[in-house]
Amino acid sequence: MMFVNLIKKWDNIFKVFCLFFVLSVLLNFVYSAEPPKIDLPNISIEMKDTKTTDALAAPLKAIGLITVLSLAPYILIMMTPYIRVVIVFSMLRSAMGTQQTPPNQVIIAFSFFVTLYILNPVLTEINEKALQPYLQKKITQEQFITRASNIYKHFMFKHTKPEDLTFFIQYAKIKKPEKPEDIPLQVLIPAYLLSELKAAFIIGFLIYLPFLVIDMIVGSVLMAMGMFMMSPMVVSLPFKLLLFVSIDGWKLITEGLIKSYQ
Fold first, then answer.
1. What angle separates helix 249-259 from helix 185-224, to the nearest 10 degrees?
2. 92 lies in a domain?
3. Is residue 236 part of a domain?
């Protein structure tokens, strides 16, 4: 028995030795093989003499474009009717007491497309008088920016209250401009934004009144019936929805917002 066990041990040792031998031969073959030759193209970089202004123009334009794109949401809020539209729709939802119905995504999307509809005449004028001549290389880039900004300044000036504009002109310590084109954007934008906030809250107040009357009537009826534990908001909600749907409220409010910019 001892002899048989000894033979088995030597047999296992011999197998392990053969395995190591085979692995060593394979590794030696792999490392001794020549690596494949790859012909790489010759690449050379040359710096030609260019003017400093030309070399800096392209990077500065790229930085300016990236900055404008990053500020696009704020431009949409500050320089368009979007702020008035979205505030009015948000206050309408609060007045009806429907909490998160319609959801924020619906209000934002609807406000965005109503804003585009209101701005359609202005954008059309900018396209005809500024963008198309620039694309046809009839005017320079500076002329394109000047024409487009002047057209949009007229729109903002038309919907800015004079007292708000005067307020920012006084604090900016500049002379009173004679034409809308002469008003700097750092004065016109905050004045326009303040006017939009005022108009939005005035419209929201007028929207709140009929729904407030319904809440008061329902609350008085519940108190007269002795139903103190019943919430007036829960009972008045169906009546407010019925009133709003029967008068086609969404259409009326959207129509009023559009007409306020005409």
1. 150
2. yes
3. no
With beta carbons less than 8 A apart as the criterion, state whether 214 and 236 touch: yes
Return left, alpha or beta for 259; rule: phi > 0 is left, psi -120 to 50 is alpha, else beta: alpha
Cα separation, 189 vs 195, in Å, equals: 10
User: Taken in order 235, 236, 240, 243, is the CA torsion positive or negative?
Assistant: positive
Residue whose pair of structure tokens reads 């490392």 in the numeric block: 31
Query: Please, what sign has the CA dihedral across residues 174, 180, 186, 192?
Result: positive
Is-contact 215 188, C-beta < 8 A? no
DSSP string, 181-200: GGS-HHHHHHHHHHHHHHHH
pLDDT of residue 238: 84
Q: Assess if residue 68 is contained within a domain.
A: no
Global pTM value: 0.70
**Assigned domain for 239 exists:** no
Instruction: Tokens 């008035």: give the residue.
Output: 84
Q: What is the DSSP letter of 102?
A: S
Neighbours of 83 (CB within 10 A): 20
Q: Within 13 A of 216's CA, how many CA atoms are on the CB side? A: 6
Q: What is the pLDDT of residues 201-239, one digit of tens each?
A: 999 899 888 888 888 888 888 777 777 777 777 778 888
pLDDT tens by residue, 167-188 = 888 888 888 887 877 888 888 8
For the chain, the domain total comes to 1
Q: Give, as one character, the DSSP assignment of residue 100.
A: T
Contact 165, 188 (CB under 8 A): yes
The sign of the torsion formed by the CA atoms of 73, 74, 79, 84 equals positive
> Residue 191 sits in which domain range?
83-207+249-259
